[in-house]
Amino acid sequence: NNEVNLMERIKMKSEDLFKDAKNYLPGGVDSPVRAIKPYPFFALKGEGPRLFDVDGNSYLDYCLAYGPLVLGHSYPPVMEAVGQQLLRGSAYGVPTEAEVNLAREVVKRVPCAEMVRFVNSGTEATMSAIRLARAVTGKKKIIKFEGAYHGAHDYVLVKSGSGAVGLPDSPGVPEETTRNTVLVPFNDEEAITNLVEQEKDEIAAIILEPVMGNVGCIPPQKGFLEFLRKITSENDIILIFDEVITGFRIASGGAQEYFGVTPDLVTMGKILGGGFPMGAFAGKRELMERIAPQGDVYQAGTFNGNPISITAGMETLKNLDKDYYRESESKGLQMRRGLGDILEDAALEYQVAGLSSMFQIYFTPTKVWDYAQAKTADVEKFNTYFRTLLANEVFIPPSQFECCFISAAHTPNDIELTLEAMEKGIKAAEK
Ligand code: PLP
């Protein structure tokens, strides 16, 4: 009897913690997407492909902290390197050899990167890259794609991705701030051509996720990135690839290597910090030389180039070799083909999206090439699918408009188990 009571109490732990959390943290969480209904599970630990909660459950994890954990949870070499670094201190306020080494590694891998500035988040990276683009062009406007998420700062918080769907303009963001942020649909060459024709003397930059990862997963149509490269070069507009998700994920040099199109600036984060807070922006030397103290464009941070994050990032990149990218392609294919087969067997015309280690199902018969098409998906069906997965020990991001990730720690067998759960989830959604 005691044992039963104990079990019941244990099952309640996440629920109780959430009640308590709501007293101290707005919405009980520190980032909106985490407020899973009716209550989120609270993490105890992560190991390889699995996340364990405080109630004694474990989940095959395809959220992976929204992307950074490309090698899975607690990857031993990363944890050991960080442990060693911790013994030598956690922050110095002076430069380290390690940050020079990581910058060199970024330059080696990423085609557009000739110089790098390390910051603390993807948000800081895009904020700074936009400032730099405005400074070098002397222009103010930026073009952003509907549904693209570039972090939580004011300039880009307009129709931005999953977290802000339904709240396209947050209160507290002055209209003056977003007046210079112009929106266009992704993959729409005509809209961009018209806009650039009319406003080229005012447009400083086009910023994009080369594969949109914050409205599910939308790849660029063939030729779209090349088109953006051409029109920006011809009109003194800086092309910024936001590779916070795609960087080091879909290829060693990110989307710019994968698609063979080199932007002027790139923003990075997530994987680059190996599971610790990190962001960076990088680009052509003549642009990056404008960053202070070499140049006049201000950017600074107490924790910029933090030795813990730098160490974790370096150790992570060491493990992202040719084998990793090959296996990542094959596991991604296994997942997307498996999902395609399940949908075909059930005679459902939903969309399986993604590339490399990124994937998602859209619960819509509409082909998805932009935000408006993504929004035709049936969110209720997705929610049932999500909850069924959770009950079957599979955790994916809790929104139709996020992207799922596969890590190096997931085995083909894990993916088979996941597909079984997904079949149940898709059937449950159709009931
Ligand atoms: N850019 C993209 C493409 C992202 O997906 C994200 C975060 O999800 C960001 C920028 C913001 O990064 P961070 O959450 O580290 O501030």
Automatic annotation (TrEMBL):
Residue numbers of N6-(pyridoxal phosphate)lysine PTMs: K270
One GO CC term, this protein: cytoplasm
One example GO MF annotation: glutamate-1-semialdehyde 2,1-aminomutase activity
Entry superkingdom: Archaea
Cofactor: pyridoxal 5'-phosphate
Annotated pathway: Porphyrin-containing compound metabolism; protoporphyrin-IX biosynthesis; 5-aminolevulinate from L-glutamyl-tRNA(Glu): step 2/2
Reactions catalysed: (S)-4-amino-5-oxopentanoate = 5-aminolevulinate
Family: Belongs to the class-III pyridoxal-phosphate-dependent aminotransferase family. HemL subfamily.
Protein name: Glutamate-1-semialdehyde 2,1-aminomutase
Species assigned in the record: Methanobacterium formicicum
